[in-house]
Specification:
Elements: H1 10-31, E1 37-40, E2 47-49, H2 50-66, E3 71-74, E4 79-80, E5 86-94, H3 96-101, E6 107-114, E7 117-125, E8 130-135, E9 139-142, E10 145-146, E11 159-162, H4 168-181, E12 187-189, H5 194-203, E13 208-211, H6 216-228, E14 232-234, E15 246-249, H7 254-263
Parallel strand pairs: 3-5, 11-12, 11-13
Antiparallel strand pairs: 1-2, 3-4, 5-6, 6-7, 7-8, 8-9, 9-10, 13-15, 14-15
Helix pairs in contact: 1-2, 5-6
This protein binds D-MYO-inositol-1-phosphate and calcium ion (CA).
């Protein structure tokens, strides 16, 4: 298919992404009872369950049945180049550790890139029956209700979410930021699913979120939801959000947290 055909109707992509994320969430819910660790990936604490793999298979099959020329990148190994200029970026279960322990903070994350830019993001949290959707330039909604990030601009009043990677060296560096951060903010949360942390920023459930080490599937859908709700979603020193550092916050709060993270070189990779 020529690339021009990829100037695709974002609403059609949103509709397919939504149907698939809903179906995937139901499958994950139905498999949760008695689920066990099946494998590990990057470290002994980076677990994979049969549900992660089954949900990714369901998503990939649904995408290819509807759009056989699209590319797919999935956390559990899906890697299809595609020829349409559209690429699906999938985290079948974001928050796998919560899922394994029966904690209700995990989600199916479906991002859709058009010509390299995320155009659609859908995050489905079936435990809470929450569906987060965003379309580039079209805003973000939670169960159909428009979202706006918090307008807070004082770091001292900010509720800041963060996350920790699976590598012990990265964790040690991430932990080193906390002694300086905790005394100057309202509080810190580690909720355990990056896509939902970004959605929480979109809804003002937290004022900001930052993390080093995010993969494209952690960031794609939730990043667009936060951005479309008015948040800045960026890296440090003008770089784009990504593996080195992702910081999401309302425009009023962003600079203060940015500068604190710069003082810690929070985007330096301790594993490099
Ligand atoms: C992880 C979660 C976690 C974040 C990690 C991610 P996974 O994804 O989003 O909150 O701190 O960086 O890898 O492994 O549960 O899909
Ligand atoms: Ca995952």
């Amino acid at each position: 298919m020529p690339l021009t055909d990829a100037v695709t109707d974002l609403d059609a992509l949103l509709s397919l992404a939504t149907d698939l994320a809903r179906e995937a969430g139901q499958l994950a819910l139905s498999m949760r009872e008695g689920i066990e660790q099946e494998d590990t990936k990057s470290s002994p604490t980076d677990v994979v369950t049969a549900a992660d793999r089954a949900v990714e298979r369901l998503l990939v099959a649904g995408i290819l049945a509807a759009r056989p020329h699209d590319g797919v990148l999935g956390e559990e190994g899906a890697g299809i180049a595609g020829t349409s200029g559209v690429r699906w970026v999938l985290d079948p279960i974001d928050g796998t550790t919560n899922y394994l322990y029966g904690l209700p903070q995990w989600a199916v994350s479906v991002g859709v890139e058009v010509d390299g830019r995320t155009g659609v993001g859908v995050v489905h949290d079936p435990s809470k029956d929450e569906l987060w959707q965003a379309v580039r330039g079209g805003g973000a909604v939670l169960n159909g209700r428009p979202l706006r990030c918090s307008a807070r601009d004082e770091l001292a009043q900010a509720m800041v979410a963060t996350g920790f990677g699976y590598d012990a060296r990265r964790r040690a560096a991430q932990a080193a930021v906390l002694p300086d951060l905790l005394p100057v903010v309202r509080d810190v949360r580690r909720l355990g699913a990056a896509s939902l942390d970004l959605c929480a920023v979109a809804a003002g459930r937290v004022d900001a979120y930052y993390e080093q080490g995010l993969n494209p599937w952690d960031l794609s859908a939730g990043g667009l939801v936060a951005q479309e709700a008015g948040a800045r979603v960026e890296g440090l020193r003008g770089r784009p959000a990504g593996f080195d550092l992702t910081l999401a916050a309302g425009p009023g709060l962003f600079p203060a947290l940015h500068d604190l993270l710069v003082r810690h070189d929070a985007d330096a990779d301790p594993c490099a």
